[in-house]
Automatic annotation (TrEMBL):
Keyword entries, A-Z: Glycosidase, Hydrolase
BP term (GO), one: carbohydrate catabolic process
Leader peptide range in chain numbering: none
Active site location: E387
Organism for this UniProt entry: Anaerocolumna jejuensis DSM 15929
One GO cellular component, as annotated: cytosol
Lineage: Bacteria, Bacillati, Bacillota, Clostridia, Lachnospirales
UniProt-recorded name of the protein: 6-phospho-beta-glucosidase
Pfam families per the UniProt record, alphabetical: Glyco_hydro_1
Amino acid sequence: MEEKNYKFPDGFLWGGATAANQIEGAWKEDGKGITVEDCLPYREVGIADFTKQFHFTTKDMEEALAAGADSNYPKRRGIQHYHYYKEDIRLFAEMGFKVYRMSIAWSRIFTDPRDEKPNEAGIAFYKDLLKECRKYNIEPLVTLSHYDPPLVLITDYRGWYSREVIDLFIKYAKVCFEQFGEYVNYWITFNEVDAMLRHPVTSGALVEDRFQDMNFEQAIYQAMHHQMLASALAVKLCHSIYPKAQIGCMMTKLCFYPFTCKPEDNLATQQRMRGIYRYVDIQVFGEYSLHLLKEIENKGCELVMLPEDNSILKEGRVDFVSFSYYMTSCMAAETEGLDMAPGNTVNGVKNPYLESSEWGWQTDPIGLRISLVDLYDRYRVPLFIVENGLGAKDVISEDGKIHDPYRIEYLREHVKNMSLAINEDGVELIGYTWWGCIDLVSESTRQMSKRYGFIYVDVDDYGKGTYKRMPKDSFYYYKKLIAANGDVSNIN
């Protein structure tokens, strides 16, 4: 069989991705306000119980605020990127990064989102970080909101259910565009905007016990509507301040296969997949789908919409669609007696043809190609893979190095399928950022021992360690891959 050429288009953006709440630490330094993530404790749970990490009540919040310095709230320390950012970016540059996806912590720009003036120390930090990226010719890709709403949205508002939060967010976005726009050509409004349906506290600052006066699903749908408006307004604002900038949305790209060829399993799969796209449809097409409106109606919920909302959505359509992709699952109309595969915060029927990671995520490189084709055929706008990666229990070997051939294999096979999607399927793909390019606190488990990075960080699940940075074998492989512009056929 003829060897395929896996080379990518000139100018393709190779890099890595992180989130402020998972790496920065310094949770109360230099005027930073408290976020929801600062109040989520580490809990030792089994693979099948990841969703317990997202169970959050008013009592949990009160305990977090009263917790002492020795309590284990991993996001408060992260990997101390706030103090190590120059070293970290230098290591990214050594790998050859063309792009670095990062997020800005809203609470570092405004200690309290109601403040009239932003926190100058927070602005100075991000401005210096962005300048550091530019020093190495790394293109920043900046997410405005990545799972870290200010805690005051819970204590003094009703999360994103409160329409007033839209104006607070746009005030914050305006500061970001004005202060950092000269360094940033690519923006994302909300990380995995669909995630509020799965873990409403980290995405929407919604705590169920604070909505006892209404159906909680009603609150979630309304909060999602407000985030759609905020995203659209931010897109329009960004274009007005920096017309050449590109601003996109970001989704969790889940992919489900029918478990069998039974019509019932195919119908269940179709319905699940329609649900995955419903909020990105709004951001790309500028209007609600009839499918989503019918879903809301059938659940006995109702959206409160103002007369101007439809025009706001239409005028704030995104320039590109970015997404996370990690795994696939199967769907069956009846799951009794079937093996289930836990993954991230979503469970599905286990696929007998796929291997699973230590955390139960089923690895499927071909599923990435399928996802790229499905997304491009649906939206016909440029795509950006901004999260893809493998969490594993890396260890330092007797030779003092970190050998991670499993991560290299995962990367190689996914890159091959990206190339096929571009060169054989005609997909327009801007770039690729490996999730957790440096070890960080896992969002799904809040562990450090679930490591994604090409760079090892010496700290354990309880914050003990030197925080020393050490390149893994995958660091050097990715360096070669970027130098070859993705042509993996001649890289060993």
